[in-house]
Amino acid sequence: MHIGDDGQARCGWCSATPDYQAYHDDEWGYPVSDDQRLFEKICLEGFQSGLSWRTILEKRENFRDAFHGFDMHRMAAMTDDDVTALLGNAGIVRHRGKIQAVINNAARCLELIEAEGSFAAYVWRYEVTGDARPGPQVVATTEASVAMSKDLKKRGWKFVGPTTVYAFMQAMGLVNDHALDCAIHAKAEQARAGFKPPV
């Protein structure tokens, strides 16, 4: 566990950098139903693959600028010239495959929304509850993340492996993975209890 300046216990990963505490306390594990926020997060988790979340968090505003605030319509219209320009942008992770993947995924997400009504309605089908919930932060994948990953790949998405998807699920509140003695666990659980998954 990590003890914050306020004397309260938090998930151990908060100790890596001061930036983590605000992210942990205010964002991580709280349920999200906004399509654009969900899409941004799954894109950023794809960029994180093989890297630390600290790297991505420090560059998050740069990513938002580079990808039009993760507006799916604008991203889906990006061209090879845009990819080339992004490869010269030192403010983001300059990985051609990942850049091409999120542009592809924007188009795939628009298709999914047309088919399913919203991205949120789709992802919340995979919420982890009750006996299906593993102990906090003890696994890198679950049956739900494997299933979502498999389905997204079938729909043409890229860089959405089961570990990436589970990190997305943890962050967006589809599972409460705060440690049981973390000061935020109960707050996240309360937020989840009052949340009505979109249909």
From TrEMBL:
InterPro entries: Adenine_glyco, DNA-3mA_glycosylase, DNA_glycosylase. One of its GO terms (biological process) is base-excision repair. Gene3D superfamilies: Hypothetical protein, domain 2. Its EC number is 3.2.2.20. Keywords: Glycosidase, Hydrolase, Metal-binding, Zinc. Zn(2+) binds at residues 11, 24, 178, 182. GO terms for molecular function: DNA-3-methyladenine glycosylase activity; metal ion binding. The keyword Hydrolase applies. Signal peptide: none annotated. It comes from the Bacteria. It holds the Pfam family Adenine_glyco. This is DNA-3-methyladenine glycosylase 1.
